[in-house]
């Protein structure tokens, strides 16, 4: 059809113009820059911010940081929703990311190097980076890592003008644990959703809150540790998780479910007792009543009383716990976890 | 009796200011009324309700104009009159509106509003459904079909008539789709009316014909007086019928493309004709998938708990869940 | 290899303010877009049914719900542009600054649940992680640690 032919002729004419524009504008970037880096009062002449790469332990490769001369460093993060773009005045910008400079304790970045080089012996910062292929480690350790941070994670020895550091695992873990707790506080204050599942604004703020308080506490701790962990080598992250006694999520889920089962069956037993009295005159014998109810949830009993006695509800419940056991052993499968742990 | 009616009518005319942009008293005032209302939003107009329509049981017809075209509003129209005034409709010439020329429709519309024998017993109303509203309804996350938009408009207009005091007894609706479902839906909402939904009702029932004329004349005028907030000036607003086959419409679509925004909002973006016209000619644009095409959320996947490994066998590190959820990451390529 | 942000802090104050829209679509193109006012801004309406300050508009027929949004507290919004990415010494120049912009969602009222809002919360979480740990606090934690170790022996 003619439509096709017009399309292709248009295609020949357009692309050049478009690509040229793209080259010029695709390079525009939206930044949120911390005012701490922009304090005009102590701005000296020729003071420029710099973007540079340093090794990021969580990413296991270099990532972008912003530095101000030789004294301030911040991490650069990008907010990159899959479908976003910017209109700026009368320009369209396909790069819909928002870059932001976020504060970072450079000690976290130093930990990787300390553990690698100074676990067995004390070294000066100068010496640590001597073997590194590029100068960034040297620059990081000598310019941006602060002594009062280092002494939290390492033993410090002074000899004349020289300072030597030896990685101290106990101190590092204690320090990281405290950092994690600081993070917990802010996660709570900001009501960040830390449990499993789709994030939802209202989910946590319900009557469930009280009942699930303990679980929440652990969810916050796990999320905080998860967050701190993204700045650590993988093995150190694992150490910190152990140190804070954070069970893995699947473990926690299984235990939680087991506890609710236990609680419920206790309640059921109590419920059955009262029922026994009530049903004492009834036709059904108390023993079978008790036997049945110990297998049932409270809700199921209510349902049961409205249905014929042969309703297979309890069977469903039992088969679920069998699945759980299988799951705890690390059962394979792609079935969604929530189908095993539906809130009853 | 008749004399009294005339008096009432006259009084109400005197009450109105001579030039009222919000009142359509003749064909001449239709254009200015439409032009005075924002064309990116829907506009409803109700004529005065003749007193007799509040007393006598009435029939009410529903029809639409401009459902198919890629350009301009879709207009829903209703008209109503006492059951016994059917002859007036015939006298006016309300027959199959598709058989009428544009000129003839204009004359009937004008007569309907200006001639006393007609406007004393026939009332009407229209809803101009903006192409902007049509596109954004059909492109919602939960899609709203043109049928739903149509039914909502039709039922809305009937409700307006009820609220204005029209004593409705019978409702006749023209439909292009299957009548049964439509009829069922209308009966559910208006259980007290005798409701007839039929194909080509506008050639069968004069009251539907009258509604059809009101809708069609309004749609034609809406296009004539269309002012582009985009600042386009088209001589005589000649953008053709709006049907995909019309070469004038085709040319309009190819000549007025903005790389980012696509078309002016006269165009229904949700029409495949419009979508196709933009392909290759404007920047490609991608939104979230509509809800119906997204895989349903089925809870956290069990596989999530088993750490993935890369091809070389090392354990892949999962990014902190919170970071992932809110699309945050470090910058490694810049 | 470092990239210089080639602007003086003092420049920021008198740099022109940019009018920004954060659009909920991937757009495969860059460059001049002269019709923003006539094709887009012209159609922005307040939609109080959705809440105070909620705006409506549409992009290519897709319904948008938006809100004026301020740059997070303690931050300055800037637009930077790379002069020439192929140069040995890469540089970003300052195009303009902004304190507010219009945030748009596709057919969803902007809320705290949006990824963007959650990401902004992160700024404060980062603050908490970066905050230094006091000497006394650390010693206390170390004591607890030693205690726990003994108990486990």
TrEMBL record, chain A:
Residues 120-240 form the Ribonuclease H2 subunit B wHTH domain. The keyword Nucleus applies. The RNase H2 complex is a heterotrimer composed of the catalytic subunit RNASEH2A and the non-catalytic subunits RNASEH2B and RNASEH2C. InterPro entries: RNase_H2_suB, RNase_H2_suB_wHTH, Rnh202_N. Transmembrane segments: none annotated. Residues 328-344 have a biased composition (Low complexity). CDD domains: RNase_H2-B. The keyword ATP-binding does not apply. GO terms for biological process: RNA catabolic process. It is found in: Nucleus. Pfam families: RNase_H2-Ydr279, Ydr279_N. Residues 257-344 are annotated as: Disordered. Keywords: Nucleus. Non catalytic subunit of RNase H2, an endonuclease that specifically degrades the RNA of RNA:DNA hybrids. Participates in DNA replication, possibly by mediating the removal of lagging-strand Okazaki fragment RNA primers during DNA replication. Mediates the excision of single ribonucleotides from DNA:RNA duplexes. Residues 51-105 form the Rnh202 triple barrel domain. This is Ribonuclease H2 subunit B. Residues 315-327 have a biased composition (Basic and acidic residues). Its main location: nucleus. One of its GO terms (cellular component) is nucleoplasm. Belongs to the RNase H2 subunit B family.
From TrEMBL, chain B:
This is Ribonuclease. Endonuclease that specifically degrades the RNA of RNA-DNA hybrids. One of its GO terms (cellular component) is ribonuclease H2 complex. It comes from Drosophila grimshawi. GO terms for biological process: DNA replication, removal of RNA primer; mismatch repair. Belongs to the RNase HII family. Eukaryotic subfamily. Keywords: Endonuclease, Hydrolase, Metal-binding, Nuclease. The gene is Dgri\GH10519. The keyword Nuclease applies. It is an enzyme of class 3 (hydrolase). InterPro entries: RNase_H2_suA, RNase_HII/HIII, RNase_HII/HIII_dom, RNase_HII_hlx-loop-hlx_cap_dom, RNaseH-like_sf, RNaseH_sf. A divalent metal cation binds at residues 63-64, 174.
TrEMBL record, chain C:
InterPro entries: RNase_H2_suC (IPR013924). Pfam families: RNase_H2_suC (PF08615). Coiled coil: none annotated. One of its GO terms (cellular component) is ribonuclease H2 complex. GO terms for biological process: RNA catabolic process. This is GH21812. The gene is Dgri\GH21812.
